[in-house]
Amino acid sequence: MSGTTQDDYTDRYARRVRGMTTSEIRALFSVANRPEVVSLAGGSPYIAALPLDAVGEMLGRLAAEQGTSTLQYGIGQGTAALREHICDVMSMSGIDGASPDDVVVTVGGQQALDLIARVFLDPGDVVLAEGPTYVGALGVFQAAQAQVAHVAMDSDGLIPAALAETLDAVARSGRRAKFLYTIPTYQNPAGVTLTDARREEVLDICAAHGLLVVEDDPYGMLSFEGGAPRPLRARRRDGVFYVSTFSKTFAPGLRVGWVLAPHAVREKLVMASEASILCPSAFAQSAVTQYLATMPWREQIKVYRETYRERREALLSALADLMPEGTTWTRPEGGLFVWATLPDGLDSKAMMPRAIAARVAYVPGTGFYADGSGTAHMRLNFSFSAPERLREGVRRLSGVMEQELSMRAVFGSAGRTHHRRGAAAADAPGPDVA
Amino acid sequence: MSGTTQDDYTDRYARRVRGMTTSEIRALFSVANRPEVVSLAGGSPYIAALPLDAVGEMLGRLAAEQGTSTLQYGIGQGTAALREHICDVMSMSGIDGASPDDVVVTVGGQQALDLIARVFLDPGDVVLAEGPTYVGALGVFQAAQAQVAHVAMDSDGLIPAALAETLDAVARSGRRAKFLYTIPTYQNPAGVTLTDARREEVLDICAAHGLLVVEDDPYGMLSFEGGAPRPLRARRRDGVFYVSTFSKTFAPGLRVGWVLAPHAVREKLVMASEASILCPSAFAQSAVTQYLATMPWREQIKVYRETYRERREALLSALADLMPEGTTWTRPEGGLFVWATLPDGLDSKAMMPRAIAARVAYVPGTGFYADGSGTAHMRLNFSFSAPERLREGVRRLSGVMEQELSMRAVFGSAGRTHHRRGAAAADAPGPDVA
């Protein structure tokens, strides 16, 4: 029995946790995982596409034959063997000549972001980030007591002129911008990709302002229409941190990601990681190393690509066929997500309980902004569910929206929910839906 | 090629990383892992004692048969199944009636400490801790920009009067003490255990001062002479955080630990964990759950106990037979470590390079203090090496010490190395030797 429900600890908390409150949306999401609900909310890869028997056999051997090392402590930076493979993986994306010595293995891409934040962010520092951006990154920046300045995107990704303007505004306000956090390829949640020309512009603007760049690239290999543009880190080395993960190309349940850092910073990241988790799992690292060394992982990525392309088509067709007039959405060329904009007057957050009641779930747009905006948007995932289920989800969702629209036509609208600045982090869904 | 060696990022770092420098001792430890070196430095369990074939078979099945969940994302708090098992494990130690809802699964005990620090520590806050204490905890508190006030121990563990005095001194200085961090049972590195009577006293003092208690109990099950005293958390629930891990009872390579927290705080810890790592590994959690559910884990702990008891005897006999006069050491009733005090005039940190040259490694005492003290001490591990190898290590070590003593007799001593406050964290060894 855990008895006490009153929070007797409030006056002892660190400043960074004040304002952290449990979200109603989180509570809704626990319902969203029920089998009768079609969830368009998750960010989960379709693990059933993996050759699970072969993976099982591989993992079993790693413990039986190499258990005295794979089940033991390891070093904070991660194993040399995995870091070498990671450099090979990055070279496939166009990042040539990276040194394994400059790679730090992390607990998924999330920990890489956290380590960078710990090494660079003091309370009050500013991080620039696309608006909308990854929920988990907002959580990191909030925990670091940093302020997020969103930079607008269009269908070509981050708008360079908006970046320059935002940087100027931050400088005028006397605050210090430490880095740009960006997901240039198949962005989460927007589903858009920064064009080649803009990549150069963005790098030039950051270099001119002495701004570091944190490039988060979990989806780059999941392209549906030819390859992705070369990463920022492939174009410029100085001042660029490259973060990625095996969660989308192999399996998220092992929690293995990495950061390629400028050499001078790598040791700080390792020390920050040791203070946080001592060392990444030796077993998980061996599993990924063995997977890359002995299994047809490039072919597996093709399987993921084909599967997700088909599902994207299914989602886009369903949206075109079923969504109420006035709804718009992005058309991603890779990745896992479509970003939808609702007809005027609809509020994705307010609508959420009714969607759950109609057995469909999505992530309201507010989760992806630090400033409470985003009520007009929602993120829809297409990687996890089969095509017919995606269509059924859109059917249910459009039903809810039609109902909202008719109610609005009858009773008028009180306008979209007003959100105070800082309220957004509490709306962030849990990791099962990130 | 990683090119740049100059640190161009210095003026961008957060305040918490200033003063973090790479340690010479860390560099030495990379040498200490060579096979010709007898390492008394590590903190590694003797994994070869596990039934690795059976563990391998179990892990293989988890991926092959349940891969769509074990290789997928999970929730931030950890699986309900594992949290229930953890409550069973804790009840074996005397902690009855804990709710799985109040348990947060973490990446080893280290992440549990980090989460508690994130939730409670602002820069300048004070943490009380035994002197000496766990290296990794000092790393956490330094990263949180907290100050550590050490409390003296004797062979009965933490001295209650010293705790009260330290609390008064902190209060007089106008700083705020947030919690006592303590390893009451088979302490790392000191190898001593807080007596029953003192446990009550310590709890009373903390309660009277409104001080939270963070009880770190990784070794409690590794008792050599009857059971361990009941944990602090078994005696008092309010204000006590109980941290433990499967690293010493199963395998550290999976990185699975936990914290049992007061109910009101649990959600903050979960949110802090999500911001740091999104969620703990579903695969590692399933592995531990399955291990606890289907394998003879209580018998395995007995195997560890027997093995370590025999090795402790070997180490203690070797010390008695071979150490130079004036050396003293603790006699642990469980756990992994002996804490040795050198004859007057010897400096464990200064002696380290010569010890490595003589093919023996230990952890100098300075790593276990936040204030640079500890040069007169060293930590010796007895869990990892076989008895005859432990004896050989002590033989080499005593040879180095004898040599140091005769040099001192001939040339006199410049006294022990002086260490400035704050220098200690840089001496901390990497996780492979923690």
UniProtKB/TrEMBL annotation, chains A, B:
<dbReference type="InterPro" id="IPR015422">
    <property type="entry name" value="PyrdxlP-dep_Trfase_small"/>
</dbReference>
<feature type="domain" description="Aminotransferase class I/classII large">
    <location>
        <begin position="51"/>
        <end position="397"/>
    </location>
</feature>
<dbReference type="InterPro" id="IPR004839">
    <property type="entry name" value="Aminotransferase_I/II_large"/>
</dbReference>
<comment type="similarity">
    <text>Belongs to the class-I pyridoxal-phosphate-dependent aminotransferase family.</text>
</comment>
<dbReference type="InterPro" id="IPR050859">
    <property type="entry name" value="Class-I_PLP-dep_aminotransf"/>
</dbReference>
<keyword id="KW-0663">Pyridoxal phosphate</keyword>
<protein>
    <submittedName>
        <fullName>GntR family transcriptional regulator</fullName>
    </submittedName>
</protein>
<dbReference type="GO" id="GO:0030170">
    <property type="term" value="F:pyridoxal phosphate binding"/>
</dbReference>
<comment type="subunit">
    <text>Homodimer.</text>
</comment>
<dbReference type="InterPro" id="IPR015421">
    <property type="entry name" value="PyrdxlP-dep_Trfase_major"/>
</dbReference>
<dbReference type="Pfam" id="PF00155">
    <property type="entry name" value="Aminotran_1_2"/>
</dbReference>
<dbReference type="GO" id="GO:0008483">
    <property type="term" value="F:transaminase activity"/>
</dbReference>
<dbReference type="InterPro" id="IPR015424">
    <property type="entry name" value="PyrdxlP-dep_Trfase"/>
</dbReference>
<dbReference type="GO" id="GO:1901605">
    <property type="term" value="P:alpha-amino acid metabolic process"/>
</dbReference>
<keyword id="KW-0808">Transferase</keyword>
<keyword id="KW-0032">Aminotransferase</keyword>
